[in-house]
Amino acid sequence: MRFFIDTADLDQIKEARDLGVLDGVTTNPSLMAKSGITGAKNIEDHYKTIASIVDGDVSAEVIATDYEGIVREGEYLASLAPNIVVKVPMIKDGIKAIGYFSENGIKTNCTLVFSAGQAILAAKAGATYISPFVGRVDDINWDGIALIQEIAELYAIQMYETEILAASIRSSKHIIDAAKAGADIATCPLSTINGLFKHPLTDIGLAQFLADHKKSNG
Ligand code: E4P
Q1: Helical H runs in the chain?
Q2: C-beta of residue 46 within 8 angstroms of C-beta of residue 52
Q3: The pTM is what?
Q4: How far does residue 210's CA lie from ligand 1's centre (Å)?
Q5: Cα–Cα distance, 67 to 182 (Å, whole number)
Q6: Is the dihedral of CA 103, 92, 79, 57 positive or negative?
Q7: Diameter of the chain measured on Cα atoms
Q8: Tens digits of per-residue pLDDT, 56-100?
Q9: 131 lines ligand 1 (CB under 6 A)
Q10: pLDDT for 126-142, tens place per residue?
Q11: 129 Cβ closer than 6 Å to some ligand 1 atom
């Protein structure tokens, strides 16, 4: 399973990249606002900067919700850098636009996916990625990881090429469970990637090794 980082924060993107485990970046309008990036020009420049920091795909989300607007905005976003993927919401005009982008060689990430039925529509439209929101499904007391598993099973049966990008990841356990459920990618906050390092026996074992080395070597 590949790792994307789910943030617009440049320091966090660089930290994940420098670990050597980063395969891409996802952003959304809320994450851009959280990083204080406002105004069309600043947002555009920020996407260009992110796309220059990582080699992998960078999702840039459209604000338009009508077909013509999504196509216009998406084509513009895709022109900013070769690794920009147009992130499109799971709505009727979004699915139509994903079909257009697919026919015109522009990669897409269908976002706000919460059901297997939506995942089928996005795959049929030719989405490069779909983003089922694991954490937000859990928030309403449903099972986000079960959704990933259901989509992975039906994509395998139908041989759809769309990749499953598990989003709204809230914990390191979500990352592990998404991998077991068949996600192709998990897009994660940096804290959840760093959480994968943690194990008390690693800390205890390392302290013991260093202490023993010091005893024998001074
Ligand atoms: C990423 O593509 C999604 O927009 C993001 O993972 C949503 O996460 P949240 O539910 O924590 O806001």
Answers
A1: 10-19, 29-34, 40-53, 67-80, 92-103, 116-125, 134-139, 144-158, 172-181, 190-195, 200-217
A2: no
A3: 0.96
A4: 40
A5: 31
A6: negative
A7: 72
A8: 999 999 999 999 999 999 999 999 999 999 999 999 999 999 999
A9: yes
A10: 999 999 999 999 999 99
A11: no
